[in-house]
C-alpha cells in the first residue's frame, strides 16, 4: 500500500512539472536586441531595415496584429497573431 501511495505521489509531482504554466523571469527572456540586424527567416521582414525599433530591449518580433513577441526561437512566433510583421533579432 505504501508503495502505491509513493508511486502516485511521484506521478502527481511529475505531472505538475510537465503541465505547469511557464513563468516569465529574467532567465527565460531572450538576449537584448543591440545588434541592429536580423537573422534570416521565412516570413516577416527585418524591422531595422524598415526603420522600426522594438518597444523594449527584449522584444524579438512584432506580429501582424500589432502584438509584441518575446519568443526565444523563431518557430511558431506569432502563430496565433497572423504571423510576423517585423523581426528584431
From TrEMBL:
Native species: Streptomyces cellostaticus
InterPro entries (alphabetical): DUF3761
Secretion signal span: 1-26
Keywords assigned: Signal
Keyword Signal attributed: yes
Protein name per UniProt: DUF3761 domain-containing protein
